[in-house]
Amino acid sequence: MSQPPVEPAPPGVRAQILATEHWGLLAVRSQTWSEVMGRITSQLMFTSASLLFLALAGQAMSYSSTFRLLAILLGLTLLVAGTLTSFRVHNASQEDYMFIKGMNRLRAAYIDIDPSLAPYFITGLHDDEAGIGQTYDMGVHRRSASQVLASSAMFIVVVNTLVAAGITAFVLWPWGGAPTAVGAFVVGAAHFATWVWLGYRSWQVNIDPAHVRFPTPGA
């Protein structure tokens, strides 16, 4: 027996349902980044305290082999904690992209209810790369390199890269200045390149056209 067709809800009811979902996404997004900022703050405090401790310990131990071993162990602890923080920021960035995608879809639904509202939105109405980029750029339609370089993900990656290079320098310390500098640079560059590659791969997954339902006309 076939089911009777379901009548669409009145526009006012549809708007209330969409607004509820919209506020839900905003709340979860706010909680996510509040937790991520707390993680980053804790990691930076840990790093600052460790550097201060090493500075005082170096004066007391005269940069002996004991101090070197202590610096390596403390650096490894910092790198492990920092890597976990980087993973959390990395995951939060992917989640944030999906939050924006969901809110863009909701704005598209608002326009379906009342097309006259379209001129009043500066954020995107489409869930493809162009539409989500408009939301991130707040309607400017221009995403500069400074926005990527100044992001939380890039910030914590740079901090972890410096820690990784510092650990390498302490490990290679007995070999002399030149090998130590070269080794620290190579390890730091490899660490940084790895995380940039992971970020790029995640971005490619996010912008997969297979997940787009409301593409930007002409994009």
TrEMBL record:
Top-level taxon in the UniProt lineage: Bacteria
Positions of transmembrane segments: 69-89, 148-175, 181-200
Sorted UniProt keywords: Membrane, Transmembrane, Transmembrane helix
Record's protein name: Uncharacterized protein
Top-level taxonomy: Bacteria, Bacillati, Actinomycetota, Actinomycetes, Propionibacteriales
